[in-house]
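Notes taken during the Thursday session

The instructor put the following on the board and asked us to keep it in front of us for the whole hour. The protein is Cyclophilin-like domain-containing protein. We were told not to look anything up and to reason only from what is written here. First, the residues (281 in total):
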Amino acid sequence: MNRFFSACVIGCAIFTLAACFSQEGEASTSDHEKHGLTLSAKQVKITSQGQTAIFRLYDTTAAKQFYAQLPLELDLSNFRDAQWMFYPPEKLSVTADEAYHDGKKGELSYYAPWGDVFMLYKDFYAGDEMHRLGVNVSGIEGIAGMSGSALIEKNEQHAAMNHSAMKIGIIANGKTTVFELNNSTAASDLYAQLPLSAPLENYSNNEKIFYPPKKLNITDTPQANAQAGTLAYYAPWGDVVIFYGNFGSAAGLYELGHVVSGNEHIEGMSGTIHIEQIRDR
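Then, after some discussion, the predicted structure tokens were revealed:
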């Protein structure tokens, strides 16, 4: 089935269902919350015509299989003036519980019937059998200018930096919770401000928040799909968020890292906390 036609049919069906739910007064659930895919530490760099785009991959079977085939140099094909697509030598396995595609600019996705991987430089459609592999973290505006062939490779610079990952300890009520930060600019900004002490506030029923002295630069920082143990940054308020329950995504919410030990202490945190760098010995 033509992917454009499939997308239109599915889009109409979703619109109809959404209208029905709206009439019944039911709240909708975002795709991030519904599917709950987790980002991995792996990054892919795609270069063409002097343009470079970097994507952070999800921790899915298909994304791992794609990463294992790199490096590749492949021809690009344009589709609907919205995406550049290419065909990896081996098809990817997409499991039902890992199937998710939002059709948004900056996605790296896989279309199972054709076996192609594609980069969206415009919003498209959340079509049938399209599955997200990763999300852009830099170079999103350069994707449209690509053409001809592309070099697809592992982002080795990121991998080397990730080998000695930044870790921080949050001490509250005499108990320490350790987080491993990602390699984003915002995470590096937070790390550079440590050590620091700050009052901790409860917010909603699944998070704790504190305010670092300086706001964080969110350039190349991935949007969060927050689960229990996620450390995030809410740019509109300038606060760091520690989640002890699942949340999902929200505009302006960016991922900084995830808990590696002491997850059970987060809900009980209170008062003034101390945040410090942890260096591996």
